[in-house]
Amino acid sequence: MRARVLAAATAAVLVTVVPTVPAHAAPAQAAPGARAARAPLPCPKAPAPKVSRPPQPVPPPAVPQDRVVGGEQLDTPGLVAPAGAPAPPAVTATSWLVADLDTGAVLGACGPHEYGTPASTQKLLLAATMMPKLDPKQVVTVTRGDLKIAPGSSAVGLLVGGRYTVETVWLGLLLNSGNEAANVLARLGGGTGGVTGGVRAMNEEARRLGARQTHAVTPSGLDGKGQFTSAYDLALIARSCFANPLFRRYALTERTQIPAQPALKKGGFQIQNENQLIYRYPGALGGKTGFTELARHSYVGAAQRNGRRLVVTLLGAEARPVRGWQQGAQLLDWGFALPRDASVGRLVEPGELDAAEAAPSGSPAPPTTPAPWHGPAATAARRMAEGDWRVIGPVAGGATIVGVLVAVLVARRRPRPTGRRRA
């Protein structure tokens, strides 16, 4: 009996003195409908000029399970931010998300699971799919079919019959957003299926990553019927890209030389990285810009500061009053200003959703990569190790109380000089 009393007293003290913090480890897929009905918080919006644009495509019907991937707080068309966080900057993007590249914690978002059109940020899905498969030193010959892109759309200037290394084609894709470069890489990675096989592989990779709202129709991000993504999905895809050292190097390349083609009697030329973040934002890691008349401006950017690496994704932005990369930079600043343990959800791990779906009904899902947050006690221990006296003081006081309780109970259990022993 005394042992039970001691255990209860100890637990009560620890619960009292250990502070609670937001959990990075939100459920991969919360139960649809579990969120209490409430009006969505409006996202801070910057005034944007009115522009003429093609009729917006009708998105697929909403799938409740897809809207809660990463946590039930993310199931909102409006703003989701940590309790007590300052208001995020007002941007023109229709949806956006800020996340930690390393822990996977989602720091805040606006309509994270709302459908949007990706424009050239879709080239990141091509990179996530094909970069691990293709030898950067392999030489590929450009075909006439590779140059079948929308007139006036972005191109790096590859020539029919020209011979280029795969690395050069990747640089043309990521620095200059070359749509013909996207066709080359999709064709090469698609094997006997060609570009169609490459797009099929992209959609398979999107599903593996947990990007359930992403469907690619073109490898470049040029608009196609039924082509959609979301700010959350783009963050999953970007996280996969930034895990690849080749991608990180390419994304930070400021300029490169497209080699001459002597057989075609054509000289070489230089291209520059169009992502202004790498030139103007301290700690920038790179990313990808995008634009079509239908999608408007899309953007993905990442940066590091004080040991943290954050990524921002945004869809449906206008270039005025500030450009897409500048809106991304403002949101990165906001994310870096939040506490390290701030979270409203998380980015699921590759293969996690497939494993959960494959598990027999009623059985626990196979183990996945553990989330970095393990509860208030573990968080308090880490903060104590870092010398946080806001935690050390209360815990030390609680430990003193527990010590006194232990001493009292031990003293009472000492055998008395006289009396009978009870069974």
Automatic annotation (TrEMBL):
Residues 86-318 form the Peptidase S11 D-alanyl-D-alanine carboxypeptidase A N-terminal domain. The active site is at residues 120, 123, 177. Substrate binds at residue 288. Belongs to the peptidase S11 family. InterPro entries: Beta-lactam/transpept-like, Peptidase_S11, Peptidase_S11_N. Residues 41-63 have a biased composition (Pro residues). GO terms for molecular function: serine-type D-Ala-D-Ala carboxypeptidase activity. Pfam families: Peptidase_S11. Keywords: Carboxypeptidase, Cell shape, Cell wall biogenesis/degradation, Hydrolase, Membrane, Peptidoglycan synthesis, Protease, Signal, Transmembrane, Transmembrane helix. The chain crosses the membrane at residues 391-411. Residues 37-65, 356-379 are annotated as: Disordered. It comes from the Bacteria. GO terms for biological process: cell wall organization; peptidoglycan biosynthetic process; proteolysis; regulation of cell shape. Residues 1-25 form the signal peptide. This is D-alanyl-D-alanine carboxypeptidase (Penicillin-binding protein 5/6).
